[in-house]
């Protein structure tokens, strides 16, 4: 059960307010606009009495920046918006505070005048700069926190977790909250605000309230999983509901359409029904135009055509061909339809009205969208992944490498600390000497209560034998018998934690490479990033930060030369276990289990994806199943969906699967694990 905290309580736990404004800067200052704000529910991970730093994490499109402005207003504390300020470096914070306070030594003077400072958009800043600049920036945060400024740092879960890891060694006390969702009462208030605006109290009527209640009930009750609670209370989903309930619509028709629509359906079924209703409603609006032009009202401005127009104007694709429209009327139709397009509920002027609409259109028109626009839409929220998983649950989704990169970006954008993501990439029926033209990818989003969303994708390689992956990469397991190239759309390759790439050769293409740390692992876990190659390893990227062989490893044969600094991370491949005894194979199986198990989410039981363990431990499929069954029978582990969870009593006796000096070894825990090893060995005979 998650520990939830009201937003008002978090505000009360922050330092005392101040009321003095200083030199106004473009992206640095107190926000005083009293925009309507609906308090969301926050999940509490760590709540210290007097913390030096407070983290607030969030998945994409949760209203994090709006919350940052509300915090600034309520606390009368300056907000530094990094999405508006492009200068992020080791001296950037000192420069902003110095200019804001008009002082020469901000490290000395600032704590007296700025007891609390809110910094938003850590993710945007990290993507813009090199690894060197980012590390220097994080170090500067630690300096000002130590000097006495309470920092409120806001970003997506993965970036916050990495910064938390860096600061935890330098800052004594840290609190961590996460924007979770809106409760049913908050959902209702949010929809009122978005649909009716400031006049919500006077504009609500019985028909509106009934329609709203029916639609929200459909979303909240579509299927009985904890993912529904966070889905129905997700701001972009509620944006779609608000568009459905705009003033002037037939609320009785809405209530009739969604009454009981959740029966037998999923949360995505209800959302897609909302989006389809909006599109068909727009088509009805152009019936008078169809009559004026003498066009078939069933053919004009169909939902499919609307998606194509939106993709052309906001995703960089070509305009629809309009083959249905007579040529002599086509120019006039194109000209007349623009006013309807500009006022489309999916858009707000020259941008999308909400990530729910951009994700839906991007998925439906992924084959024609500009790759950069597709990537941008995907990284805004987890909804592109959700739409793909819902539509392709019966068969693999065929995508190219850029589309796969978008799916992976959306998967990461949908992650929050109570969730675990995992991507597994393999080649079906690959044989030595074969040049692969496709790979199969399994993308998984799972919650600690075993709720799970999966997508199987068949990825078409642009160059046979070469798999191109785009940073950021995390929780990904790749086994490819060719060349793997890791590139980035930004200056720095962002990789880790929980990354394993096994290939003939690996190339890293970027200015720098930043290794994200694994807060879900213990000292006994294997490296956060492991690259295993047979014939080559190359990198144009400069390695940033204090990276050790404990968290980054290159497994390479002795015959392969590695250049500096990569040679210091080299380790020899494991011995071939195909001819070893059952005892040896059982021991290797247990060693891999010890190394790969991570905490499931920020807190929780330690677990590993079964497919990941299978691909890393060397047993044949039938033997692997037998070994897993032994663990389950003995109570060492349990299976939930596609994950193997280590039971709590056994987790206390974990050892270092790598056999590193100074770590708890198998010999130290032999009395506990020897009976298990014997049982696995017997099953492998």
Distance between the termini: 43 Å
| Helical fraction | 40-55%
Low-confidence stretches: none
Radius of gyration: 27 Å
Question: What portion of residues belong to β-strands?
Answer: 15-25%
Profile the largest sheet: 10 strands, mixed
Total E-strand runs? 27
Mean pLDDT: 88
Tell me the domain tally.
4
Number of helices: 26
Give the overall shape: globular
Structural category is alpha/beta
Could you give a short description of this structure?
By secondary structure, this protein is α/β, with parallel strands linked by helices. Helices cover 41% and strands 21% of the residues.
Please describe what this structure looks like.
This protein is α/β, with parallel strands linked by helices and 685 residues long. It has four domains: 4-181, Rossmann fold; 204-351, no CATH class; 393-571, no CATH class; 582-684, Arc Repressor Mutant, subunit A. It is built from 26 helices and 27 strands. Strands 11, 12, 13, 14, 15, 16, 18, 20, 22 and 23 form a ten-stranded mixed sheet that branches. Helix 18 crosses helix 20 (383-391), helix 20 (383-391) packs across helix 21 and helix 22 (582-596) crosses helix 26 (670-684). The longest helix is centred in the middle third of the chain and has 19 residues, at 267-285. The chain is globular. The model has no long low-confidence stretch (mean pLDDT 88).
């Amino acid at each position: 059960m998650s520990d939830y905290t009201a937003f008002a309580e978090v505000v009360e736990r922050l330092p005392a307010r101040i009321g003095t404004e200083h030199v106004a800067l473009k992206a640095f200052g107190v926000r005083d606009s009293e925009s309507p704000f609906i308090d969301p529910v926050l999940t509490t991970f760590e709540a210290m009495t007097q913390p030096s730093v407070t983290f607030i994490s969030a998945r994409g499109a949760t209203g994090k920046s709006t919350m940052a402005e509300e915090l600034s207003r309520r606390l009368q504390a300056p907000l530094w918006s990094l999405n508006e300020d492009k200068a992020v470096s080791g001296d950037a914070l000192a420069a902003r505070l110095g200019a804001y306070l008009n002082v020469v030594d901000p490290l000395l003077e600032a704590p007296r005048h700025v007891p609390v400072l809110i910094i938003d958009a850590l993710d945007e800043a990290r993507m813009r700069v090199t690894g060197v600049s980012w590390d220097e920036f994080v170090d500067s945060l630690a300096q000002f926190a130590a000097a006495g400024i309470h920092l409120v740092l806001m970003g997506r879960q993965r970036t916050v977790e990495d910064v938390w890891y860096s600061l935890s060694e330098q800052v004594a006390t840290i609190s961590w909250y996460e924007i979770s969702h809106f409760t049913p009462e908050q959902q209702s208030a949010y929809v009122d605000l978005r649909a009716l605006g400031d006049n919500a109290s006077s504009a609500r009527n019985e028909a509106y309230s009934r329609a709203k209640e029916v639609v929200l009930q459909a979303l909240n009750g579509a299927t009985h999983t904890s993912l529904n609670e966070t889905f129905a209370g997700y701001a972009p989903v509620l944006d779609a509901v608000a568009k459905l309930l705009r003033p002037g619509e037939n609320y009785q028709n809405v209530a009739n359409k969604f009454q009981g629509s959740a029966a037998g359906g999923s949360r995505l079924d209800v959302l897609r029904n909302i989006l389809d209703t909006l599109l068909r409603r727009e088509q009805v609006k152009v019936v008078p135009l169809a009559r004026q032009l003498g066009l078939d009202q069933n053919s004009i401005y169909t939902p499919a055509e609307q998606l194509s127009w939106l993709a052309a104007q906001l995703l960089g694709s070509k305009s629809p061909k309009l083959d249905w429209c007579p040529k002599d009327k086509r120019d006039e139709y194109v000209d007349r339809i623009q006013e309807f397009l500009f006022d489309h509920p999916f858009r707000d002027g020259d941008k999308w009205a909400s990530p729910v609409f951009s994700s839906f259109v991007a998925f439906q028109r992924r084959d024609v969208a500009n790759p950069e626009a597709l990537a941008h839409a995907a990284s805004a929220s987890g909804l592109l992944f959700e739409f793909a998983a819902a539509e392709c649950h019966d068969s693999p989704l065929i995508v190219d490498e850029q589309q796969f990169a978008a799916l992976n970006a959306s998967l990461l954008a949908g992650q929050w600390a109570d969730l675990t993501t995992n991507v597994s990439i393999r080649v079906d029926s690959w044989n030595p000497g074969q040049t692969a033209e496709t790979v199969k990818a399994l993308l998984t989003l799972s919650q600690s209560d075993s709720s799970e969303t999966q997508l199987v994708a068949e990825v078409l390689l642009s160059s046979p034998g070469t798999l191109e992956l785009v940073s950021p990469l995390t929780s990904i397991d790749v086994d490819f018998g060719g060349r793997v190239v890791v590139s980035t759309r930004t200056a720095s390759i962002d990789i880790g934690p929980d990354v394993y790439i096994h290939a003939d050769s690996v190339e890293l293409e970027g200015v720098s490479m930043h290794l994200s740390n694994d807060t879900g692992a213990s000292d006994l876990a294997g490296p956060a990033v492991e690259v295993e190659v047979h014939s080559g390893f190359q990198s144009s990227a400069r390695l940033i930060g204090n990276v050790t062989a404990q968290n980054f490893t290159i497994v390479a044969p002795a015959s392969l030369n590695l250049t500096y600094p990569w040679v210091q991370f080299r380790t020899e491949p494991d011995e071939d276990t195909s001819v070893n005894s059952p005892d040896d194979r059982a021991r290797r199986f247990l060693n891999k289990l010890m190394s790969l198990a991570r905490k499931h989410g920020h807190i929780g039981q330690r677990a590993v994806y079964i497919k990941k363990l299978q691909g890393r431990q060397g047993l044949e499929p039938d033997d692997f199943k037998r070994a897993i069954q032994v663990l389950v029978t003995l109570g060492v582990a349990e299976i939930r969906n596609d994950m193997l969870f280590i039971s709590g009593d056994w987790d206390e006796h974990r050892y270092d699967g790598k056999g590193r000096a100074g770590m708890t070894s198998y010999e130290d825990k032999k009395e506990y694990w020897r009976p298990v090893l014997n049982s696995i060995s017997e099953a492998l005979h």
